[in-house]
Write a structure and sequence with these properties.
The complex is a heterodimer. Helix content of chain A is about 85%, strand content about 0%. Chain A is mainly alpha-helical. Chain A has one domain. By secondary structure, chain B is an all-alpha fold. Chain B has helices at about 1-20, 25-45, 50-75, 85-110, 120-130, 135-140, 145-160, 185-205, 215-230, 240-265, 275-300; strands spanning about 170-175, 305. Chain B has a two-stranded antiparallel ribbon. Classes of the chains: A mainly alpha, B mainly alpha. The interface of A and B includes residues 81, 85, 88, 96 and 97 of A.
Chain lengths: ~100, ~300
């Protein structure tokens, strides 16, 4: 059972790391702000989600597990909203750091 | 593995620090400074300084970062500063190198193990009634430092306000915000406050026994208030308002009152009688919390700019 949970953690955290890597490569390689935002939100949402879900069996407590999931949900809400705000700034032509 | 992580952290921290100093663009330097603050938080976690990590994330990276972004935006409309002469640069380089050398010499000259008061704190912490050693040091053993810190913050706000124009006095700080009422910012400013209030008060309350405390909690509450201000849902209070001024001095005055009480009951200013140490520490924390929240939130909008209601 414990080996199975460890395998779950390894697979999910590795998958999360792949999304982080892809998001970072996208941030560095994509040509404009909107596509870079698109790449970053994948790291926030999917990457962090997979890492959190992978770590939940390892923390040894329901409360800490719920706190981890809450962190993921908060990052998703704020990440999605901030991405919208930046995208609106870009569209209106006042990109703060082109 | 941990060594590899620590080494990578140190390398990235040094690289970011160099970037902050060398970046040509002020905005890029501030962005690097915020990333530096977040990585420094990780470094403090690796050193098991969780209280300091929380403070660094909230104040070092978060609030200071926001203040610096505000400064960059103000500088855009200001006339460009004259470029530094080679004389100034040389003086700055010599001053920085000397400071670094003196600091390094001091750290390297420490005996091994370094002198520490930690055993003394560990022996006496039971008297204070709090379990978090950081809180015990800040509010019982070295409370003079904390009192002066709170007063310095108050002076910082008074300094920021005094930069306002006479015509704007006693108006509201910052510019009026007009985000679309159904926009995404207003949405965020409606769903985050309940969560932020609970987390801020929890971090404040748990500070007696676990990592946390009034500074970290107050920063979270201030951030939530600033979010609602930025979305146009609330407005900053007028700097002349009586309740605001009363609340701003209430914290330090409460702290000083506890100190004077100590000079009668325990024989020294700011001394805490052991039988009442825990309630008095709580009283100081509760008195300081609203003051700190107000100061930290109002530092960002800066001097008063609008006289209209």
């Amino acid at each position: 059972m414990s080996a199975l949970l460890d395998l779950w953690t390894v697979v999910l955290v590795s998958a999360g790391a792949v999304f982080y890597l892809a998001g970072t490569v996208g941030l560095l390689r994509f040509p404009d702000a909107l596509t870079r935002l698109h790449a970053l939100t994948k790291a926030d949402n999917l990457g962090l989600g997979l890492v959190v879900l992978g770590l939940v069996p390892q923390v040894g407590g329901v409360i800490i597990g719920i706190k981890l999931v809450a962190v993921w949900l908060l990052v998703m809400v704020s990440g999605a909203c901030v991405a919208q705000l930046i995208a609106r700034l870009v569209r209106h032509g006042s990109d703060p750091a082109p | 593995m941990t060594l590899l992580f620590d080494a990578a952290l140190v390398v990235v921290l040094l690289g970011l620090a160099a970037w902050v100093v060398l970046a040509r663009n002020a905005f890029a330097a501030v962005a690097a400074f915020i990333a530096y603050g977040l990585l420094l938080t990780l470094a403090w976690l690796q050193l098991h300084g969780i209280d300091i990590a929380l403070t660094e994330a909230a104040i070092g990276g978060g609030l200071t970062g926001a203040l610096l972004i505000g400064a960059v935006i103000r500088l855009r409309t200001a006339p460009p500063a004259a470029p530094a002469t080679s004389m100034t640069l040389a003086l700055a380089a010599i001053a920085a190198a000397t400071t670094t050398a003196v600091l390094a010499a001091c750290v390297l000259a420490l005996p091994d193990p370094a002198p520490t008061l930690a055993p003394l704190v560990a022996d006496n912490i039971a008297v204070t009634g709090v379990e978090n050693a950081i809180t015990a040091v800040l509010l019982a053993f070295r409370s003079m430092d904390t009192l002066l810190e709170a007063i310095v913050l108050l002076f910082a706000l008074v300094g920021a306000w005094s930069l306002g124009a006479d015509s704007a006095w006693p108006g509201r700080p910052g510019f009026a915000q007009s985000a679309p009422p159904n926009g995404i910012l207003a949405y965020l400013a409606r769903i985050l406050p309940p969560i932020g209030l609970v987390i801020g008060v929890y971090i404040f309350w748990t500070g007696a026994d676990n990592p946390g405390g009034k500074f970290q909690g107050a920063t979270i509450l201030a951030a939530i208030w600033l979010l609602t201000m930025a979305a146009g849902l609330t407005d900053a209070p007028r700097v002349g308002s009586r309740w605001l001024r009363a609340a701003l001095v209430a914290g330090p005055l409460g702290f000083i009152a506890v100190g004077v009480f100590g000079s009668y009951s325990a024989g020294a200013f700011l001394a805490l009688p052991p039988e009442a140490a825990k309630p008095l520490i709580l009283a100081i924390e509760i008195a300081l919390m609203p003051t700190l929240t107000l100061i930290l939130a109002l530092l960002l909008p800066g001097p008063p700019q609008r006289t209209s209601s």
